[in-house]
Structures are given as C-alpha cells and as structure tokens.
C-alpha cells in the first residue's frame, strides 16, 4: 500500500457521480470468496438505483490517487428492496427505525490498516445523525463450511464484527441472487443479518 489516501463522501443522488468507480470496485472485490460474484455493469446499475433514489443513503469512499480502493454504503432499511426489509418485518421490527449497511469493500493492499473500522464509524455516525434510528444492520452470505472454492487460508470477518458490537441473528435471513463465477445466470444465496443498537459503542 503506497501513496496518500483521500476520502470522499456522497449522499443520495450524488452517489451517481462515482458510479463507475464503485461498480468497478464491487466487481473486483466481490469476485473473491465468499461472494464469488460474476459481476456486470448492468447488474450494478440495477443495484445502485436503490441508493440513488434515497435522499438519506450514504457512501464513503477511499481513493489512492485517482483510483477508488475502498468504499462502503448505507441506507435506511425502509428505502431498501423488499427482500431486505422482509425478514425484519416478519420479526416485528419497526423498519423505520433500522439503518441498513451495504457493502464494505477494500482492495487487498489496503486491508489491515484500520479502514474497516473507519467504514463502520462513518456509517454509524451517518445513521446517528438523524436522531431517529435505533438499530443498524448488515447481512453476509452463508456459503457453509464445505464450499469447494473456499480458500484454505480463508478467515471470516465474524470476529471483527463481534468486536464492533454486532450480533449474528440466525432468525433474520434473506435470499439474494447473483451469478457465481463462470455462471451465466443468477442463483439464490442465503444471507444472514447482523444487528447492533446504535447507542452501543464498539470495542476497538
């Protein structure tokens, strides 16, 4: 990792200004296990429309020179798609009080220098700024323990998320679809949610 890093914040429709950078970064990082995402610009356009249409959505990006090397997003759960809202509605949550955290992605050379914590700090601060939301959440794909493409050295982020004060909620599950590497069509994936009360402070 070399060079000075700069930080960019965008909200709502302003996220469109960095669409190409964000889409490209998502496609690169999400090719890695456990997402194994066979990305396309067309898929990215559909995904990011949800964020552009929400006035309270937020993006925090990291640049090295002119290249986006990391990014994270969040959005009120009420502004998310039906498959993201449904587990919370079914469990009796007040959807209007929950903030949903989207991707948190970094190129390998920029990992391990504190940016993962920065991503959570930025999103939690954005959610708290409205003085309305009580809970934040995100979801991660469940590939099981015996996936054939799981690298031998793979280490999940569970310990990091627990350290940040998040709890894995096995009762909150959703299904998302995307094409796996080398596959021409999207297939369903199980997503498990993690939650945290916004008045809880992380251990760092």
Automatic annotation (TrEMBL):
Domain N-acetyltransferase: 13-199
InterPro entries with a match to the protein in the record: Acyl_CoA_acyltransferase, GNAT_dom
GO molecular function, one term: acyltransferase activity, transferring groups other than amino-acyl groups
Coiled coil: none
Name of the protein in its database record: GNAT family N-acetyltransferase
């Amino acid at each position: 990792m070399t060079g000075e890093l700069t930080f960019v914040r965008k909200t709502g429709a302003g996220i469109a200004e960095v669409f190409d950078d964000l889409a490209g970064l998502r496609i690169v990082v999400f090719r890695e296990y456990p997402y194994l995402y066979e990305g396309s610009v067309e898929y990215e356009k559909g995904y990011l429309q949800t964020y552009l249409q929400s006035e309270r959505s937020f993006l925090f990006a990291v640049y090295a020179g002119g290249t986006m090397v990391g990014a994270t997003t969040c959005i009120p759960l009420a502004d998310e798609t039906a498959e993201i809202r449904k587990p919370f509605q079914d469990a009796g949550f007040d959807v209007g009080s929950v903030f949903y955290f989207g991707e948190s992605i970094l190129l390998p050379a920029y990992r391990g220098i504190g940016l993962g914590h920065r991503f959570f700090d930025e999103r939690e601060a954005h959610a708290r700024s409205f003085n309305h939301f009580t809970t934040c959440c995100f979801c991660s794909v469940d590939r099981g323990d015996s996936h054939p493409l799981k690298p031998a050295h793979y280490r999940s982020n569970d310990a990091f998320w627990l350290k940040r004060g998040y709890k894995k909620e096995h009762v909150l599950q959703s299904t998302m679809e995307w094409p796996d590497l080398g596959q021409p069509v999207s297939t369903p994936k199980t997503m498990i949610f993690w939650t945290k009360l916004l008045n809880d402070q992380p251990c760092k």
